[in-house]
Amino acid sequence: MPKNRNTFSSLTARRRKVTSRAVHAAWRWVQRQGAVTAERPGRLRFRAIGHGTRLAFPQGTVFGEPWIEIGDHCIVAEQVTLTAGLMPDLDLGPDPILTLGNGVVLGRGSHVIADTTVTIGDDCYFGPYVYITSTNHSYDDPEQPVGKQWPRMEPVHIGPGCWIGTNAVVLPGTRLGRNVVVAAGAVVRGEVPDHCVVAGTPARVVRRWDAEQGWQPPLRTPAPVPIPEHMTPEALVALAELPDPPGGC
After folding, report:
1. Are residues 34 and 60 in contact, defined by beta-carbon separation less than 8 angstroms?
2. Whole-number pLDDT of residue 1
3. Where are the domains of the chain?
4. Can you give the pTM of this predicted structure?
5. Matching PANTHER family, A to Z (predicted)?
6. Which CATH class is domain 20-138+145-240?
């Protein structure tokens, strides 16, 4: 009896292993087929979607595509929400409402809510679960539920080269300059100059670049050493496999 039980357990384990591999292979196939590109837009009809851009599957909520422009070589991760207008099937006029420049990366689960104009510059990178909105609830009338009061809308502009950390929130009326860093979890509103780091709730400038003095306050860690131009991928692999020197680093 123990022998039969062991045989049954072994067969069950093998079936589970085979089933698991099949499920994962099927899901990878679904992800490839469900991804959105300029050549394979699926049901989505964006105003523009650039060469080399890919929206991973499954997508989040997407509507108002005729007023959404996405540049070249963008990466939009899974479950990212992109919306133009307060609700689907509105006529928003002749101009784009939501614009993503070239090389924009939107992390998993992020939301970009463009009820009025939202512009994201080239080469901006967003961590997961970033929330950007051009609309905020109003609560002027104390007798009415907040959700039933007409919201306030202000355009949002994010300059090129910005990095927005995980779980950051960018509120209506925000204007970020060039190469701005927004720390994880920050809540940003208002105007931020070029080459600044902002953090906190509400976000404030904690570091800025000065042409004469460099970063103020100074950076606590040295700048990373760039990879030499002549370095090949094979040489990098060989370098990574070198043994540690005696006595450690």
Report:
1. no
2. 47
3. 20-138+145-240
4. 0.84
5. ACETYLTRANSFERASE C18B11.09C-RELATED (PTHR23416:SF23), SIALIC ACID SYNTHASE-RELATED (PTHR23416)
6. mainly beta
Number of residues in the chain: 249
**What are the residue numbers of the active site?**
137
Alpha-carbon separation of residue 45 from 49, 66, 69, 88, 112 (angstroms): 9, 6, 10, 13, 17
Cα separation, 51 vs 71, in Å, equals 8
* Two structure tokens written together for 107: 């992390």
Helix or strand (DSSP H, E) at 169: strand 169-170
Nearest alpha-carbon partner for 64 in 103, 112, 119, 5: 112
Using CB atoms within 10 Å of the CB of residue 22, give its burial: 0 to 12 exposed, 13 to 18 middle, 19+ buried.
Answer: exposed
pLDDT at 220 over 70: yes
Structure tokens at 66: 């005729």
Q: Are 74 and 97 in contact (CB under 8 A)?
A: no
Separation CA 114–CA 68 (nearest Å) = 9
Residue 47 Ramachandran class (φ > 0 left, ψ -120 to 50 alpha, else beta)? alpha
CA–CA–CA angle 120, 57, 34 (5° rounding): 120
**Structure confidence by residue, pLDDT tens digits, 63-97:** 999 999 999 999 999 999 999 998 888 899 999 99
- Residue 151 in 3-state DSSP? coil
